Amino acid sequence: MATTTREFHLVSRPTGLPTAENFRLAERELPEPGAGQILVRNDVLSVDPYMRGRMNDVKSYVPAFQLDEPLEGGAVGTVLVSEDPAIPVGASVLHNSGWRDHAILDGKQATVVDTGRAPAGAYLNALGFIGLTAWGGLLITAEFKAGDTVFVSGAAGAVGSLVGQIAKAKGAGRVIGSAGGPAKVAALVADFGYDAAIDYRAGDLRGQLSAAAPDGIDVYFDNVGGEHLEAALSELNPHGRVALCGAISVYNATEAPTGPRNIALAIGKRLTLRGFIVGDFFPRHAEFVAEMAPWLVSGQVKAAETVVDGLENTPDAFLALFTGGNTGKMLVRP
Description:
By secondary structure, this protein is an alpha/beta fold. Helix content is 25%, strand content 26%. The chain contains 9 helices and 15 strands. Strands 3, 4, 5, 6, 7, 14 and 15 form a 7-stranded mixed sheet that branches. Strand 9, helix 4 and strand 10 (196-199) form a beta-alpha-beta unit. Helix 2 crosses helix 3 (158-169).
């Protein structure tokens, strides 16, 4: 059994897009777990856009990462040593001590998962917070109704690729996605069941959206913000609903964003713009799993993954989220 382990620390706070210099891969001694604790070998790690916000020293709904301390993130691993009688050696557990090879944590901070029924990555993707974000944001926050025309930005990403499929499974009239580049646009239709897809890199985003949704849109699931939100406001029908999930287009901005410049349209159209975080849906987690699991088993919903090998490549996998380097969920295998 290993006596040392590796873990990534944040060593400086980024300005704009982070660089490799903001991270350090540190090696340390691996202590024995204490009473009630477990030692876990991480098998798969999650990197997510929200982590960029935690790299800033600002108050938010999750605490900022501390400098010269291990970074955190979702992970699934195998229990090597257990001092918690409720968690056996060999069990697979879901926890939040990612960005490292091994984790020592209290047993109550881990959830046993069955990797015989679903692969480890699924618990960081469609069966985890990613799936719950997509499901709850669409059905609860946006108050989706059968027959709605739905527009999703960042539609080839982890959350977006699931939102479109959930909307189709629940009876959407039309589902439109935005992604960057011809390959991702083609995948939205061919792999994820979108009725139409637009390439934001091709320009004239509003014109493309108007052509794809000639009767307007009823729901906008926003993962991007900025120009996408502005275009959606122009094309939303009266009483349209916007679920504000993320704004990846401005996460690395060094100046205040300029828009959306047409926010006043929300007044006359009587639009609802509502932000949310995944914790809002925890009380309905069992309902989510009961609906999502059969969709995955039947193939009605596909959970895409982009997998990077090697713990040392975790920062590169994280940074690729901001340059379109992933289709579906970005995962790292240490």
